[in-house]
Amino acid sequence: MLFQHFIYVGLSSSLFLFVRGRKLPEPEVKVEVTHKPFLCNRKSKYGDMLLVHYDGFLESNGTMFHSSRLHGDKNPVWFTLGNQEVLKGWDKGMQNMCTGEQRKLTVPPSLAYGKEGKGRIPASSTLVFDIELMEIRNGPKSHESFQEMDLNNDWRLSRQEVKEYLMKEFEKHGYQANATQHDVMVDDIFNMEDEDKDGFITTREFTYTHDEL
User: Fold this and answer.
1) Mean of the pLDDT values across residues 96-101?
2) H-helix or E-strand spanning residue 65
C-alpha cells in the first residue's frame, strides 16, 4: 500500500505539472575542477571502472563525514561509473575526468541520500566531495572486456568468468585480489545486466544501454 501511495503521489504531481504547463528543473551537480593534469590520454565515461580517493563534507557546516584517506582501510575506492554503485551525484559529476584530475562536487540531496539521510548524514543534506581520480580501467560495458571475459566463446558470461576477469585485471595492475570485494562487484554487475535472471549475461544484455545510464 505504501508503494502504491508513492506511485499515486508521483503520478499526481506529474499530471499537475503537465496541466500547469511547467516542468521542474532536473537537479544538477555543481562541478569545480581543482586540478587538471597536463597530459590526459583518456577521459572517464559511463561503463569505466574508476579508482578514487575522496573526502566528504556536509555543506551546511563543513563537517567531514568520511574520508577514504583517513577512515576504514585508508585505500582508494573502486566503482563502475554509471552503474548506480555510488551516489547519483558521483555518476553525473565524474564524467570526462582525466587520471590525476581533482574535482569538487556539490551534490544536492536528491542526488545523494535524499530526505532520509544516512548514518552521520542528516536528512535533506547537500554534500560536498573532494575527489581525486587515481586510475581508469575498462569496465563491464566495454566490448573488449566482453571478449576477454568470454573464456569459452559461447557469447554469454557466467558469474565465474566475470569474477576471473576482475581478479586478473586487479592483479595485472599490481593490486591484491580480494575475493569478497570481487563477489560484491559481480553481484552488482549481474543485478544490472542479467535482465532475464538466468545467471548469464548475453551480448545483447551486456551492450544494452539503460535509460538511467
Assistant:
1) 96
2) strand 64-67
